[in-house]
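Re: the request from the purification team.
They wanted to know what the chain is likely to look like in 3D before they choose a buffer screen. I agreed to run a prediction and write the result into the notebook, where they can find it.
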Amino acid sequence: MKPQAGSSEWIYIHLNSAQDYVMSAGIEFKEFYHALSANLHHLLLLKHQYDNASFNMHTHMEYVSADELSKMAKDTIESYGDFCWIDFEDEAGVDEMTSQEIAELLYIGHMKNHLRLPFYRKLNNQYVYLTAEDGTMNRTYYRNWEDFYSVLGTVLPAKWYHHRNGKNMMRWKKEKMISLLPKETVRTITHLLQEGAVISLAKASTTRTKIDIPIWLVGDYESLNDLEEEMTVRMKQTPDAWFSYDRKSKDWTAVI
């Protein structure tokens, strides 16, 4: 039942708006990158096993420059184990980090949590990405929540496409890619995501004219095993909401 990018049958989202982060399962770095590649500059690596990183003398940390990110996104990041980073706009800002700020970054990478909200003026960072196994249970900080809505709106249709075509390998005609899920539609279920919800591709109802993707409230989890136990119970019940896609008009709606 462990979520895997591309073939994942479900996505878990718990949105913690008070502390600017999202706990998620079923979304990997390569999917995050493809959704937000236009916004990402360089990554200061707090924990990783990427072989082609550069070295910053001031922090004694490695980093990946913007022009290397597409190559990194193709790497087998799920095999790294710990994978933690914070983005930054310019290396000159990294070189201005104080000892206290560097200590905070070391804490973030080690504990996968923050001492104070991890947005630094010197870095002008937009994100912090923390996981012990990429795609399994990730903690991602967002300076701007619109970026989170973009990630989910990009990843969910892509996962539906891969899920359907993975299941239908023997069919002559494969499913076509569907439209991105608009941020405005995702925002309508923010209150559910703030409680912790699972979006299931495996339980989706698909016809010639319509796609209905169910959503269940499951609560706040940081343990995959505990989450899966709760999912087993909740997903036997009526869904709390659906994302509904009209194939003719190519419009998405949220039904609560």
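For the purification team: The chain has two domains: 28-134, 147-255.
Please add any questions underneath this entry.
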